[in-house]
Structures are given as C-alpha cells and as structure tokens.
Amino acid sequence: MDIKGVYRHYKGKYYEVLSPAADAESGAPYVFYRQMYEPYGYWIRPWDMFFGTQEVDGQTVRRFVRTEDGPAPSGRPVPPEVSVVHSETLERYALAGQDGEKVLVRATGERADDLARR
Fold it and tell me: I need a surface site. Which of 22, 42, 52, 81 has the fewest CB within 10 A?
C-alpha cells in the first residue's frame, strides 16, 4: 500500500507522509512524516494511531485524511542526520536505515521537551 502523499490533520494542518517506518529493534510500525509548515519538523506516529479515529465534539473523525487540496509535496530529500520526534511521547529518534520501502528508526534516549504538543 502506497501511503505517501499529503494528509490533513483533523485540526486542519497539512503533513507530508514520506514512508512507512518501523522501530529497528521492536519492529513496531510507524508512519514517518513531515510538517508542511514552520518549522517543517520530522515526526513518527504509531501506524494505528495515524490511520485511526479521534473523538471531536461528540463526533468520530479520522485523525488524518489523505487530500489533494493541500499544498504540494516539497520533494525535498530527507537529510540523513535528521532528528525525528515521536508524536505522542516526544522521544527523539534517528534514522537507522531502510528495510525495503520502510524507514527504520531507533530511539536516541533523548526527549524533545523543547517542543510544544501539537
């Protein structure tokens, strides 16, 4: 399944999904994506959470929806030394290679406490 593309978060901002990802040690599935607004950060979110639903004002909505209406994907390559942040725990991850189409990530043991929750 090709998941690459632009997605709109239920709060209205746009994100570019770059690839599926997996924890290099546990194999836990993630989605690797980047913000399409300042500061253009790189994130991972658990697969089920990314493609799951959220309760908003008594309604169940999809957390992210693929869209053609958002900004165009940047096409910028991902820097090899990029810092990736787990969307829920704010733990920092590093890219650890590829496994076919998946990006492998590894926890660095650091937290991104300087980032505000989105």
Answer: 81
List all residues 6 or more positions away from 18 whose beta carbon is below 8 Å from its beta carbon. Answer: 4, 32, 33, 34, 78, 103
User: pTM of the predicted model, to two decimals?
Assistant: 0.88
Task: Note down the domain range covering 59.
Answer: 5-111
What does the alpha-carbon distance between residue 110 and residue 112 come to, in Å, rounded to a whole number?
Answer: 7
- The bridge status of strand 5-9 relative to strand 64-66 is antiparallel
pLDDT digits (tens, 9 = 90+) for 73-110: 877 888 878 889 999 999 999 999 988 889 999 999 99
Domains in the chain: how many in total? 1
117 belongs to a structural domain: no
**Averaged confidence pLDDT in the chain:** 90
CATH number, position 106: 2.30.30.320
| Number of residues in the chain | 118
